[in-house]
Structure formats: C-alpha cells, structure tokens
Amino acid sequence: MDFIEDMALYERAMMNAYYIITKEKTLDDIYYELDEGIIDDLPLPFDPVFEDGRTEDIIDIVIEYFISTEEYEKCAKLVEIKKECLKIPTKYEELL
Questions:
Q1: What range does the domain containing 48 cover?
Q2: CB under 8 Å to 63, separation ≥6 — which residues?
Q3: Calpha distance 6→16 (Å, rounded)
C-alpha cells in the first residue's frame, strides 16, 4: 500500500467514525453498503464489536482529522457529542 492509498483509507475510517459517532449511519447501514457493493471496506479507528466510538480518545482523533481538513461544522458537532458523552449525571438526573 502506498501513501495515497493509506491516506484514502484513513479518510474513509474518519468518515465512517463520524457517521457512527453522530448516528448519521448505524453499523447496520454500513454493513448493508458493504453487502450491496456500495463500499468495498469498513475501516474504523475503533473496534465496533466492543465500542461505539463515543469515547474521549476516539472523538479527539476524529476532531483532529476534521480540523486538518477544515471541516469545522463537523468538529463542532463532535465537540457537542463529546461533552454529552463525558457528562457526569447529577443525583437529580440519576433519579429521572
């Protein structure tokens, strides 16, 4: 694999992660695209069997990627999701 192919794979991994983290697509949607031949592979920066990508480190990696591509709207959406995922519920919220 050469540099161009590596970068294309990295880009697909970041886009797939973004779709899953933001819930714009489910893993089932992406598996369907694989099955139908719409996409050829499913690169992700995390193992979807064990996590959904909504961890601080994964979200930070995806944010850094979109900063580098100057897609700040996606960064803002990811920052909001990160805040929500890291939120520690108060005692009142736990009762609800």
A1: 3-95
A2: 75, 78, 79, 82
A3: 15
- Six token digits for residue 17: 């992660």
Q: Which amino acid is at 89?
A: P
CB 16 within 8 A of CB 53: no
Cβ atoms of 43 and 95 closer than 8 Å = no
Number of domains forming the structure of the chain: 1
- Contact between 37 and 73 under an 8 Å Cβ cutoff? The reply is no
* pLDDT tens digits for range 6-57: 999 999 999 999 999 999 999 899 889 999 998 888 899 999 889 989 999 9
Question: Are 19 and 53 a contacting pair, CB within 8 Å?
Answer: no
pTM here is 0.84
The helix/strand count (H/E) of the chain reads as: 5, 0
